Amino acid sequence: MCSSNDNQFELESQLHEQYAINNNANVGSFVSFLAALLALFGFFGYAFVFSSNEFSSNGKLIKDGIMSLDVFFLFSIIVIGMLFFLSLISLQLGYSSRSNQIIIDRIRDRYFEKNKKIIFGKSYSPIGKTWCSFVQDFFNIFYWLFFCGQILVIIFSVYKAVQNSCLCNSEWGIFVIFIFLIQLLAIFLTLCFRCRYFVKYCNAFEEKVAEKMIKKSCYITRIKLCKNFKLK
Known about the structure:
The chain is an all-alpha fold. The protein has 7 helices and 2 strands, in the order ααββααααα.
């Protein structure tokens, strides 16, 4: 008969293996993020090049293949909204990988206390990450790319608005201010969500929280093992 400690070790070892599988599966997200980033910048670049510096008149949004300025601003809202949601997705996936790494690090502390640093090295430790680096791997890179993309959208939108000399003396001024407020709100919310996840990351190192994470993960693993055993 196997002891409870052996069973627990087996469960946590399988959790360790599952983490490695999940981590490798996340690499597939790299291609999706890259394709989305290129598509959005291509979409926005097209709207920027083929748009005039004047607003529509008499309901004509497109004239001779050139979009009016109000259409460009609507495109900018769509692009910055997509960049915002992509930044949240990359943030959530990156933090999820980091939280799994915290659990695995606790397991290593339990079973590899003496040789942990020799076996795994410092680069595998989730401890001591800053606000800028607590999101794991390339998810962090794409988060900042999406964030910088939002800033670029605002910069090009300001450039387009400045080119319109009649902006301050027309009713379109309120429309442009509204557009800029939405764009700035997207920037603000992107940073707020990162702060929220960073607080969760810091709290995960509290002893009670970390142990709860391990117990929950082991409980899920037990359920999967029981289902597999019944199927067999």
